[in-house]
Amino acid sequence: MTDNVSAIVARYDIHPDMVPMLEEFESLPVAQTFQEGREIWSSFCRKAMRPRPDGMTVTDGTIATDAYAIPIRTYRPAGAADPSPGILYIHGGGFISGDLDTNDTVAWGLAEETGAVVVSTHYRLAPEHPFPAAHDDCYAALCHVAANAQTFGIDPARLAICGDSAGGNLAATVTLAARDRGGPEIAAQAILYPGFRTDGTLPSFTTYGEAPIQNKASTEKYRALYMPDPATHTNPYACPLMAGDYGNLPPALIHVAGVDAARDEGELYAERLADAGVDATYRVAEGMIHSFMRARFDGPAAAAEFKVAIDFLSKHLSER
Known about the structure:
Blueprint: H1 3-12, H2 19-26, H3 34-46, E1 57-64, E2 69-76, E3 84-90, H4 104-114, E4 117-121, H5 133-147, H6 149-152, E5 154-164, H7 166-180, E6 189-192, H8 204-207, H9 216-226, E7 252-259, H10 263-275, E8 280-289, H11 300-318
Parallel strand pairs: 3-4, 3-5, 5-6, 6-7, 7-8
Antiparallel strand pairs: 1-2, 2-4
Helix pairs in contact: 5-7
């Protein structure tokens, strides 16, 4: 362990299971351009990739819309029933990076461990495509999967949504939109270490303002690039904490990293859901850093946090 990583671990009491990912992240070069930043992030994510399980069927495709041909990847675990429960999975990357490959291991893990068919969706990235492009693409993907459930081998009454980081924001906003627009029906929402793009004044932005991977500076950058128009800052489909109504939403897991500048955004969202009568579970992955879902092969504690999401999704998909 380098002196720099040792100092970060000691400062924030970071769990040992996070050290391999932290060491890899801290060794990354500083990007000089957006494209270089995307390539560096992809390289970092590839280090956590693992081969897909034997017998899993994986197919790539696109969803045609007027604005964009949305890339999707479908994972069907071996022995999956037809129809199976389904999960729409939305990757992270600060709204500016990431694709179907960067989170492939998370997506196939969801399918393998829940037995559900997982459809992983990409979306247009900022700054070239600011809000509402990513939100619109993810809602379109949900509508497409629900409307074509039979083609995917999915039971439309057992369709959940899951997203991490920026994908957690998008999972929450798509769920709000599905309620507001009368569908599609969502059985459960798993929102993992989300960035809800507030103004950065909650206490965790000070306590963990220099935390690894997601800190105060990075959250400010993502907000500026994804939401450059100040008028969007109060739009609940950009920032779910701006919603005026949190009722009539599906059961939710809000699962945050203990060492994360944006952790209080997740806690506040869970509180608002619960106050509105939503079945909301809030969990802090103590000692874990942002993006911990990709570290499940690095130790038993990280694997246990991954299983929290698996158990939540499995429970609500089996109850239908």
